[in-house]
Amino acid sequence: MLFNLFDCKVIIQEDFHNIIIINISLYLNRMKKIVFIVGGAGYIGSHMAKHADLAGYDIVVLDNLSTGHEDAVKYGKFEFCDIKNKESLDVLFKKYQPDAVMHFSAYSIVGESVVDPYKYYENNVSGTLNLLKIMLDNQCNKIIFSSTAAVFGNPEYTPIDEEHIKKPINPYGRSKLMAEQILEDFDKAYDLKYLVFRYFNAAGHDASGELSERHDPETHLLPLIMQAARGDRENISIFGTDYNTEDGTCIRDYIHVDDLCAAHLNGLNMLFNPENKISSNDFNLGNGSGFSVKEVISKVKILTSKDFVVLEKDRRSGDPAVLIASNIKASKTLNFTPDKSKIEDIIKSLID
User: Fold this and answer.
1) Residues 6 or more apart from 310 whose CB is under 8 A from it?
2) Distance between CA 126 and CA 132 in Å, rounded?
3) What's the pLDDT tens digit per position in 214-223?
4) Quick one: CATH architecture of 27-202+256-286?
5) Domain assignments of the chain as residue spans, ordered by start
6) Is 172 marked active-site?
7) Cα 31 to Cα 11: distance, rounded to the nearest angstrom
């Protein structure tokens, strides 16, 4: 006979002399959706593993630790795996039978992509293709893909919405756009459902202080400024003070990593919502407002009560004057509103 326990059907088999009750915990565990977080030992991936685990998903982190840290995997199980290795991927998909994948496993240093494009196309494109093929082979048809504002190149207008023309100007941006196009083709051909999230400038640390950003080498502006404030580096450089902005320095849209994860979690819930007809989609994720380099440096000095040397240097090739995201689509479709929209809130999380 069948009865419901916590919305979980439990089978009881009456076999003449014995009543066998199937282990309830096995059913309860399988009711939890299993999610692979590929690249989950990295900055954003490790934060995402925490958010998804606390939301009730069964998390398995896959990472080759080339840029990630195993001690950052504080939630879910960890499996060492490189997405360039199809055989290893297949073994893990057969072992865990995931219901969905969140893909954060990409190289992301723009300058490095220019001098070593093979590394970026091999991992970000071929590696993604491997992952998608193994997903299809194992009947897993839901993926959230971590993309970037770099697919837009030099913007023709701001705020940048999802319809903005995509003309990346470096191999990193091109590798991400190629992966987006592959996802679109796989949806049409194989019914693989995807959500693409394009980040602008991810920043900040986990509110509880449990996780942090640890890039080596560090290339992101805010962590570099914080190093200068702590005395871990002698100075911070501003590349270009003659842009057509109020103070002459570049303006960027910073979004706290916890807000990024909240948007991803909304997307994951949407993919699994049986009441929604699942359709693939793409979203830009930012705060919808920008802060100049000089403004960010000034805020750090004020909030840390530290002074440090700031050097003014020539522009870097390919740096747009302004990059700001439009959040209209994410707000309407994902019900996404950044919680930490002030640059002060992001900086304080780094200080704490």
Assistant:
1) 235, 236, 237, 238, 297
2) 10
3) 766 777 889 9
4) 3-Layer(aba) Sandwich (3.40)
5) 27-202+256-286
6) yes
7) 15
